[in-house]
Amino acid sequence: MKIENIIDRLIEVISADDYFSDIKIIKAYPCTIAPSRIATETVALGFDEIRLSSASVDNSNRAGDISVFVDIFIPIKMENSRACDIFSRICRCFYVYNILSVSAQRMAVDINTSAYVLKTVFTFNDEIEVI
Questions:
Q1: Percent of the chain's residues with pLDDT above 70
Q2: pLDDT > 90: what percent of the chain?
Q3: Residue 101 forms beta bridges with which residues?
Q4: How far apart are CA 119 and CA 70, in angstroms?
Q5: Where does the chain show beta strands of DSSP type E?
Q6: What is the DSSP letter of 76?
Q7: What is the dihedral of CA 8, 16, 26, 121, to 10 degrees?
Q8: Sign of the torsion angle spanned by Cα atoms 61, 49, 13, 44
Q9: 44, 23 contact by CB (below 8 A)
Q10: So what's the pLDDT on residue 64?
């Protein structure tokens, strides 16, 4: 998998599930102004951490771990339990990848977006194309 395509590929995988047809799926801060108020359920993805080994698979590929954050925003006017439903469904979408770990923090209120937010991190092990 090419390093620059990882987030786009994960967004494609989530978006392919009909469950997410009414949920906004975005890259976190995609060359835009900082957060604004959230009007609809939104899932934002971005890199949390990338660790590649020094031993190469070949000249342009490295084995390593990639941690991707998946922040789930639920507008305050909606039922916050939806975040857990969405998280569960995302876990189902990612089953095809070599997941090393999944973590989720306690739900919080984000005053910048006027939304509940469930911060999660998925760590994958894969062969990454760096060139």
A1: 89
A2: 65
A3: 123
A4: 6
A5: 24-27, 42-56, 61-75, 99-104, 108-110, 115-129
A6: T
A7: -80
A8: negative
A9: no
A10: 85
Residues making up the chain, counted from first to last: 131
- C-alpha–C-alpha distance, residues 59 and 4, integer Å: 17
Q: Which of 101, 105, 82 is nearest to 19 (CA)?
A: 82
pLDDT tens digits, one per residue of 72-84: 999 999 999 999 9
Confidence label for 71 from pLDDT (cuts 50, 70 and 90): very high
Task: Give alpha helix (H) positions in the chain.
Answer: 6-15, 82-93
For the entire predicted model, the pTM comes to 0.88
> Are residues 114 and 38 in contact, defined by beta-carbon separation less than 8 angstroms?
yes
φ, ψ for residue 82 (rounded to 5)? -60, -30
